[in-house]
Amino acid sequence: MSREENLNPSIIEAIGSTPLVELSRLTKNIDGRILAKLDYLNPGFSKKDRVARQIIEDAENNGELSAGQTVVELTSGNTGTGLAIVCAVKGYPFVAVMSKGNSTERARMMTALGAEVVLVDQLHNSIPGQVSGGDLELVEAQAKELTDKRKAFRADQFVLAGNFRAHYLHTGPECLQQSKERIQAFCDFAGTGGTFAGCAAAFKEHDQSIKCFVVEPRDAAILAGNVVSNPAHRIQGGGYSKAKLHYLNPEHIDGFIGISDEEATETARALAQQEGIFAGFSSGANVAAAMQLLAGPLKGQTVVTLINDSGLKYLSTDLWE
What total number of domains does the chain contain? Predict the structure, then answer.
């Protein structure tokens, strides 16, 4: 007698459907609940696997990506890792363009997954390990040049709808389903803005009363309208002085929360030591923001946020010193 197999045809189908857990230890002295979406458990150890899959599959479906065509994208490492995985399975050569200011683990992981990694020098006054907006502009210029030179498909996470769609179609609805629709607020660190925009759209469509907050580095809170005093902040993957993020809908933003490097670092360490969740700087920023909300205007309510990527990607940084 044969049994029906319960198998995924590839690792791509393992992307998404990550657990939602309550951070009851960090909130034991706070009136309210934090629900954390563990997107660091995706195959590439970050939420960006969802974006990579959606962008590539959208491009396949609309004819923008041809069989065997090279894919190029700039990355701080997470989107690049997701694209390396998806492209490896689907047979597309992938070129990741990244600043030398990002942690070395990311470049090594992408290389191991078969990607060609092009590392771009930082500006002469930049601090190693701290990527500024100027550094990102150099990476963007290199990505454009390589795209033209190789007649590649540019998997532009700042522009393409797949970034928004990945979270509007999947991450947001998953949070609603897993929480039994018992959430009152959402906060997320804005990198490209895709996660916030997609989830906020899904939440507001479900219930307009769900409050949605953009999280930024305190000293680089340009989306909140502040002057950037520290473009070389420690929270990799966002706060790069981009005043306009393509998919952010102002009508879905109920407020902004600035988090310092110290708060992000301390909370990431507390996540590891108290909740057993080994995550990076932006995840620390997200949870710190959620705790601020519960200590202030959202006392007694339930806030959902994301654990964006794994602490394994920061072993060469001072996060774990």
Answer: 2
